[in-house]
Amino acid sequence: MKFDYVASGHYLKIKKVKGKYKLYRASDKNKDQSYFLYTFNQAELSHLLFPLANYKKPRVRELAKKWHLPVAEKSESQEICFIPGKHHNDFLKKYISLHSGDIKLLDGTVLGRHQGLSLYTIGQRRGIEIGGAGPYYAAKFDWKHNILSVVKDFNDPIFYRDKLIAKKVNWINGKEPKLPLACSVVIRYRHPAVKCTVWSKKVRGYAVVFKKAQRAITPGQSVVFYQGQEVLGGGVID
Q: Which secondary structure element, helix H or strand E, spans residue 111, and what is its range?
């Protein structure tokens, strides 16, 4: 549309360093959205502005009130902004073909019925809805037989892995860094960054080895690489 720039309200920092655009975490660590925005390339970044980069949310509200903006008192939301009603399962039910199936313990004991495997994620507790002597945690998906396996122990060994494969990886710099790469990684939104090593690219993607085993690594979620506050890039957990 021939605009020079697009300004976004996302909490993220952008800087141009030696001719390259770099992304960094926002100053407001509670609102930082760098985990979701690792897919940008250099051409896109050259036309993006993030005015909230150095502001914290209370100050943004103050400024909005000062300038009589109608959103100054808008209630806070932690959910997905583009989904009406903010309930992601209702959104998924509208667009995905779902099939109910058994919920079982790992020993094969049937506890109840699930609403469709796509509505659950590894480690999930809320929404299992089988009652009894719970709580129960989603531990394993059997897509072939449409079975959701659950366990009762939050720290069951089945949840812990010391490595993963990252596919569809985008490096913000535009080129692959020197490997192996020692950096920090985030495996889900609001998960603390943990130390890892990214190894040479495999057939399926990059091998990511953690210094300490991590809980509930979930295929399909994003994995994002950081060097300090800088966002190096990211991909999708295979």
A: strand 110-114
Long-range contacts of the stretch 133-141 (C-beta < 8 A, 24+):
136/103, 136/111, 139/106, 140/106, 141/117
> Contact, 13 vs 54, CB < 8 A?
yes
C-alpha distances in Å from residue 41, one per residue of 21, 50, 170: 9, 15, 8
Residue 135 preceded by cis peptide, ω within 30 = yes
- The answer to whether residues 68 and 27 touch, using CB atoms and an 8 Å cutoff, is no
Span 24-71, pLDDT tens digits: 999 999 999 999 999 999 999 999 999 999 999 999 999 999 999 998
SS3 238: coil
Backbone angles phi, psi at 43, to 5 degrees: -65, -40
- Please tell me the distance from the alpha carbon of residue 73 to that of residue 199, in angstroms, as a whole number: 47
List CB contacts of 1: < 8 A, sequence separation 6 or more. none
Instruction: Copy the structure tokens of residue 29.
Output: 């660590």
- The contacts of residue 75 (CB under 8 Å, 6+ apart) are none
Strand order in the sheet with 101-105: 110-114, 101-105, 147-151, 137-142
Per residue in 193-211, pLDDT tens? 999 999 987 678 999 999 9
Please provide the average confidence, as pLDDT, over all residues in the chain: 93
